[in-house]
């Protein structure tokens, strides 16, 4: 082969982009209600002060009910009883300017506290967590609660039970 031919052959060896391997992560979140209030995590996330529902990722072999109890205990120090599934929410990052491999499915449970609801303080707080707060349900729409689509649904719990429903890809 001559040098010109080697150069042409070499140009066909373009780098191959690594494929994005997407996995779906399951999680369980809790709407913990007590005396017209909901328990929220205060957080500082992506440069903003905000609130989240307590909860987190499911471990292999763990039911979602066990996941929500474990995560709430770790993050808040509170034992809860999951009473029923309220909502099923998905988050697909690529649809909201996020990472294409970020796909989460969250089961959001209505939970009641066991024991003294004012004894809070978990041993495994999230990195972004700055505190815990019981918030009146009527005040939830005015909070920077993420995802924003949950605010009216949580506030409506002050007026009665919400039917279980699939929320879709909610940011």
UniProtKB/TrEMBL annotation:
Keywords: Hydrolase. Residues 23-158 form the Nudix hydrolase domain. The keyword Transmembrane does not apply. Pfam families: NUDIX (PF00293). One of its GO terms (molecular function) is hydrolase activity. Its cofactor is Mg(2+). The keyword Hydrolase applies. This is NUDIX domain-containing protein.
